[in-house]
């Protein structure tokens, strides 16, 4: 059998390159889709708590607990994901970095504040009802994620925003900061999904249709959990995409 010619052999690589080009998605449309998905997650967790769980209050009842999932999804997942993607915006690749650093840290700080309020809501509910705190895997994972988040924010603030941090320290800590950024997001997603499942197990039993019969509330909440998982995976995928990363300041392309 005759060997394929150079032209025939190049068809495969050309087709592969063309397929990759067709699958390439611009960042801004992807970011718009991700923003819509994040808003949908927030709207759905609010609808779940309002329609099936009785709404919101600050009286220490179960309606006080309902602030917990809303604030956690909004802060620890959606707003945190937005903070993580700030440096993927093409406008951040040129000009001074300080405004974008401030935006990144402000979004992360806002996410942290909402997260702390969400923790306060669940502790207030447990204490008023005489329910023990920190006894489930969800609670351990959630509190561990928040503690790691606080350390991440404090270390990032000290390394990248304070003017006296040496350049070698920033260069050393940057990959660690990026790694733990993605790790915290996935831990946040895992905490939210496990919390949704735990709440359904506790709520759908006496006086309601059992969870195993998959009532409308279970379908709705499980769908919410899947959307939260998809949001987290897409954010991590965007962070890992090489073409969307900000060029290094000392690279040849950046100097040019």
Automatic annotation (TrEMBL):
Membrane topology according to the record: Multi-pass membrane protein
Keywords: Electron transport, Endosome, Glycoprotein, Heme, Iron, Lysosome, Membrane, Metal-binding, Oxidoreductase, Translocase, Transmembrane, Transmembrane helix, Transport
Broad class of where this protein is predominantly found: membrane
Location within or outside the cell: Late endosome membrane; Lysosome membrane
Cofactor(s) essential for the protein: heme b
Record keyword Iron-sulfur present: no
EC number of the protein: 7.2.1.3
Enzyme class: translocase
Transmembrane parts of this sequence: 27-49, 70-90, 102-125, 137-164, 176-197, 218-240
Any GO MF annotation of the entry: metal ion binding
Record text on subunit structure and interactions: Homodimer.
Function: Transmembrane reductase that uses ascorbate as an electron donor in the cytoplasm and transfers electrons across membranes to reduce iron cations Fe(3+) into Fe(2+) in the lumen of the late endosome and lysosome. Reduced iron can then be extruded from the late endosome and lysosome to the cytoplasm by divalent metal-specific transporters. It is therefore most probably involved in endosomal and lysosomal cellular iron homeostasis.
Protein name: Lysosomal membrane ascorbate-dependent ferrireductase CYB561A3
Protein source organism: Setophaga kirtlandii
Lineage: Eukaryota, Metazoa, Chordata, Craniata, Vertebrata
Gene responsible for this protein: Cyb561a3
